[in-house]
Amino acid sequence: MRKNAYNTDVEEGESLFRFVADTAPVMIWMAATDKLCIYFNQPWLDFTGRSLEMELGNGWADGVHRDDLLRCLQTYTTSFDRREPFQMTYRLRRFDGEYRWILDHGVPRFSFDGTFAGYIGSCVDITEQKLAEEARFNMSQKLIEVQEQERRWLARELHDDVSQRISLLALDLQYLRQNLPASRVELRQKLADECTRVSQLASDVDTLSHGLHSSTLQRLGLAAAADLFCRDMATLNKIDVDFHGRKLPKDMSKATELCLFRVLQEALRNAVKHSGSREFAVSLSSSSNQVELTVRDWGSGFEPEAELAGGHGLGIVSMRERVQLIGGELSIDSQTGAGTTSHATAPLSCASEFLHE
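Predicted structure:
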């Protein structure tokens, strides 16, 4: 009777385990002391689309991506020999033929008397998390490239323009000190000319500084900063920039303000530099839940996708990823000879404030 009762308890326990395992939201496997698998639950079989007989022993390894198999088996056997828990990721073929990233946790099993009984493991599909990590990594790499590009641009501006002008100014002042004009009138005129050059240099440095970090954006908001930037660009490049900015809400996210201001800077600078147009239009408007920015020119135009494919569209990548980071969208409509329109939409409120400077 005791033996029968014991056998009944064991059978009921195994039945309960299989029921729980087959209804669990994870894939479960078990291996005996010889490293060969002796059990897979229903979610595993549903995932792989294979029968239990096909998976038993080392059959499960047929579904592991060949580039991951050696590493997977090494982790498995090394941990098994050491009786240590392990965690590993690998690609496993799903029933439809697609390889999915799997996170596999394995732990040793022991009998009631403490003897080693094998391993039990659980697996979950982490493909979406893996893709998100890769996207974040790629985005970080591209943003680093953009930062380096901005630093190179700043270095060129300082060396080729500001530094050269300061050197010329110093030479002219040195010459003036050694060769003073005969009359005071002429001396005053030359000093006035040098003062004008110094004032213009200071103004240009201020414009450069403003482009890197706009104090107007912090003090007065996006509309005022965008208006000032457009006027500065028009004056500096002797172009026409028609700016229209409807009154924007005061509770707009700082991340949204900064993002759209940077997109405006990039889009308008690119248009001025590459379009060949002398006329540009910039507009800012808002609805109940988003802000819209449009930058348009009537220049030569280009093929955006061709630029990206050729590796020359780093500015486009920078703008697009800035907008996507705050949950917005960027579209660029351009055709050769027909001008370009850059259109960005961004939410008024943004939970992530990591774009602050």
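Summary: Strands lie at 27-31, 37-40, 86-93, 99-110, 116-125, 240-245, 279-286, 290-297, 329-334, 340-347.
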